[in-house]
Amino acid sequence: MATTEIESVSKLANEFSKLPGVGKKTALRYAYYVIGLSEDGAKTFADSIMEVKHKVKLCEECGNFTEVSPCAICSHRKQNVICVVKEPKDVLAVEKSRAFNGVYHVLHGTINPILNIGPNDIKIKELLDRVSKYNTEEVIMATNPDVEGDATALYIAKLLKPLGVKVTRLAQGVSMGSELEFADEVTLSRALEDRKTL
User: Fold this and answer.
1) Where are the alpha helices (DSSP H) in 17-161?
2) Alpha carbon of residue 154 to chain centroid
3) Whole domain around residue 152: which residue ranges?
4) Regarding beta strands 166-169 and 196-197, do their DSSP bridges make them parallel or antiparallel, or are they unpaired?
5) How far apart are CA 86 and CA 145, in angstroms?
6) What is the pLDDT of residue 2?
7) How many Cβ atoms are within 10 Å of 1's Cβ, its own excluded?
8) Which among 45, 73, 155, 159 is least buried, having the fewest CB atoms inside 10 angstroms?
9) 115 φ, ψ to 5°?
10) Per-residue confidence band for 14, with pLDDT thresholds at 50, 70 and 90
11) Structural domain count of the chain
C-alpha cells in the first residue's frame, strides 16, 4: 500500500513536535508553513535558530539567558535583594509586573525526588555564594506555587536563615499549581507586594 507521507516533511514535523505544547497536528502545520516560506525566509528562520545557539549563554551571576555576561540586570541593579525563580522565562514574567527592581537567581529546576533532582542538581550553591559575596539582605522565593516549588523554597530558606538573611515567599496571589510565566502582571505585582517571611 502506497503511503502519502513525505519523509522530509515528517522529519521536520517530528522536530517541531519536540517543542513544549506542540502536538502532532500543530507540528505538521509548522512543517507546512516552513515549506511555504521563500528560500530567503527559510534561511533567515534557520539562521536565527543557529544565532541563538551560538550567542546566548548563562549570566555568570544570576544564571539567566544573556548574550553578554554579566547580564544587563546584574550589571545595573543592587544585589541586596535577590528574587529566586525556577527558569529563565520566569524572570520575564516578574519583570513584566514592574514591581521588582532587584536582581534574580535562576535555579534551572526545582527539587524533585521523583525525577531524581536533588539540591546539588540545581543552582543552590551558586545562590549561597552570591548571598555571602554581596551581603544580600533579602531573598524572595518566587518558585512556582506547587509541591516542588514549595519544597525548594523551604529547603533554601533553611540554608539561608543561619546567615541572617530575610527569606520571603510570594503571597498567594499566584494560584496553587499554576505556572509563574502565565500569571498576569497585576497578580504578580500583588504577590510581590504581599510576600511573606518563611
Assistant:
1) 24-36, 39-55, 72-76, 88-97, 124-134, 147-160
2) 19
3) 59-197
4) antiparallel
5) 11
6) 45
7) 2
8) 45
9) -95, 10
10) very high
11) 2
Per the CB < 8 A criterion, the answer to whether 165 and 139 are in contact is: yes
**Which cell numbers in the block locate residue 194?**
504581599
Same domain flag for 91 and 182 = yes
What is the model's pLDDT at position 84? 98
Model confidence, pTM: 0.80
What's the residue count for the chain? 198
Query: Do strands 166-169 and 138-141 pair parallel, antiparallel, or not at all (unpaired)?
Result: parallel
What separation in angstroms does the CA of 71 have from each of 27, 135, 140, 146? 33, 20, 20, 29
The one-letter code for the residue type at 34 is V
The amino acid present at 129, given as its one-letter code, is: D
Backbone angles phi, psi at 132, to 5 degrees: -70, -45
The DSSP bridge partners found for residue 105 are 84
Claim to verify: residue 85 and residue 29 sit in the same structural domain? no
Enclosing H/E stretch for 126: helix 124-134
Candidate ranges 3-7, 53-57, 76-80, 183-187; pick with highest mean pLDDT: 53-57
Q: Do 123 and 67 share a structural domain?
A: yes
Res. 52: pLDDT tops 90: yes
